[in-house]
User: Fold this.
Amino acid sequence: MENLISLVNRLQRACTALGDHGDESALPTLWDALPSIAVVGGQSSGKSSVLESVVGKDFLPRGSGIVTRRPLVLQLHRLDEGREYAEFAHLPRKRFTDFAAVRKEIADETDRETGRSKQISTVPIYLSIYSPNVVNLTLIDLPGLTKVAVEGQPDSIVHDIENMVRSYIEKPNCIILAISPANQDLATSDAIKISREVDPKGERTFGVLTKIDLMDKGTDAVDMLEGRSYKLQFPWIGVVNRSQADINKSVDMIAARRREREYFSSTPEYKHLAHRMGSEHLGKVLSKHLESVIKSRIPGLQSLINKTIIELETELSRLGKPIATDAGGKLYMIMEICRIFDQIFKEHLDGKRPGGDKVYNVFDNQLPAALKRLQFDKQLAMENVRKLITEADGYQPHLIAPEQGYRRLIESTLVTIKGPAEASVDAVHAILKDLVHKSISETSELKQYPSLRVEVANAACESLDRMRDESKKATLQLVEMECSYLTVDFFRKLPQDIEKGGNPTHSIFDRYNDSYLRRIGSNVLSYVHMVVGTLRNSIPKSVVYCQVREAKRSLLDHFFAELGKKEGKQLGTLLDEDPAIMQRRISLAKRLELYRAAQSEIDTVAWSK
Assistant:
């Protein structure tokens, strides 16, 4: 069972080392879940003397006013043999065998945290004492409760101390060791008063009476010790501390314990209670009770730790990796984030994520509808055909077929296809831009770094702009190709009978009659429809080749080329994570380290059992 107390000792030390003091914070706390014994008492109640009696050593600072200004977590480890020594958690490689030096270090470490003022701090001091004369036990010595502030202290010190004490003892896992002097009325005891507030039934309070030997003649503490004055679930324990004269004479603690035993066994009023009185008995009772409480809490602790580890890992994953310190690490980190973004963008286009289907919709619906809306009939109206044919003939009327007129009519009609072609390019460009912004918002790693997010978005959009421009050139060239070279076979297959305009003996005016011009318009319209059918298939190919395919292949190539020219400091400006997030990640990582260590410690104890 002794290893259970050692387990809690190790977990408490880990809590302090990793910043878990059980205070109010946005982080889960293991400290509050660990069973502990808090020592509570008013100033001059004999609290320090009780602790020194349990330990068997003079090691606590003494003086007037508030001496204990920080919680002192006192961890006692029983040795089978060997020389007793002490260690502080803040000085892990230093052993103290002189307990006067321990007293000085407690005072110095308090001043390091609070300054030489008389302020208090909630940050604990950890002191481990190894000795053959102690039981395995952990006690938390809290500042003594006071009713007035002394010189150099703020007026709020009374409430500050009371709030600190209450923050420890109000937790259900805290065992309260309430120290009260026997030569004062229990009704006025600071320790009993505050203990009653948080533990009204006395289910986790141990009452300790000090200064029994200093009571007025003719009075005794039997009613108090037997629980008639104030009943607790556990029996009251009386102790006889060394007097100030004994302390001044440096009376040995072992001798003091012997005198304490003799006092209770030889005093008639207490003789029947002697077997459960004294500081030695107090240490054993507390050790045994603490062991049983720890044992009952182990399953709940394991469950809490496992649950919290999952929660911490989930949040750390959401916050992302910490920023690298060297230029190479930063460059790699930026490239990795960009790779993730690029992959998400490709998944949108490839159908693994929504959005890529909108590109097909442009080719399947938008482009055909736009081509269908082109008013070729207006372009090939009788008057326009007549005008272009006569203008093309110039001073020399055509002899057989108005070839130049045909060309002008076809070119002037086909050029109108440029509008829908450009609109298709622009529509796909808008879709790709939208997918870029979606991909950026879905790349959780980019949310950490606002500057990098802006740079990647700008770089991707600039690449898309360049691809759009190239796509427009290529797509418009397809239309211009159709204008610049006509498909001869189409016209060779047209009927060429005399009555339809092939007889040169007709008068020049006959060649411009309505029937003849309608035939020309009809031929041109048939040719244009053929070309439209061809372009309806080739424009999407050009757009996909120049924009979609290129975006998948080289969206951030230009950005990467510029990135390689940047130095470490410039790369650092891109990774401008919110300082609050950075601090949160550090805090979470420390807390996760604590919980994993706790999980390992508890599992070891569970397996050994």
